[in-house]
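Handout, section B. The chain below has 103 residues.
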Amino acid sequence: LGTMFGGWRIVRTMGQKITKLKPVGGFCAETGGALTLFIATALGIPVSTTHTITGAIVGVGATQRMSAVRWGVAGNIVWAWIFTIPAAAFVAAIAYWVSLQIF
């Protein structure tokens, strides 16, 4: 559902707002993200596909020039990741508590 209703925003943020991606940059970001996932999997390290592709996009932008990356947008994404873990824990705890009261 999230992709259906908000996917276009994610695509725009990843492909235009972090840094302007050209086709070759998109290819390199996808390849870098995939290789990172491959290596992490081989080492038994659990990583997120979203995190790897975001890092790869930032890397592609930074190789053009550091100012090509909109660091404020990248920072907002990182803060969202950090906030998501405790927020999900809180929502799950409330849902569990409510289910204990009902059942």
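Note. Residues 2-102 form one domain. Compare this with the example in section A.
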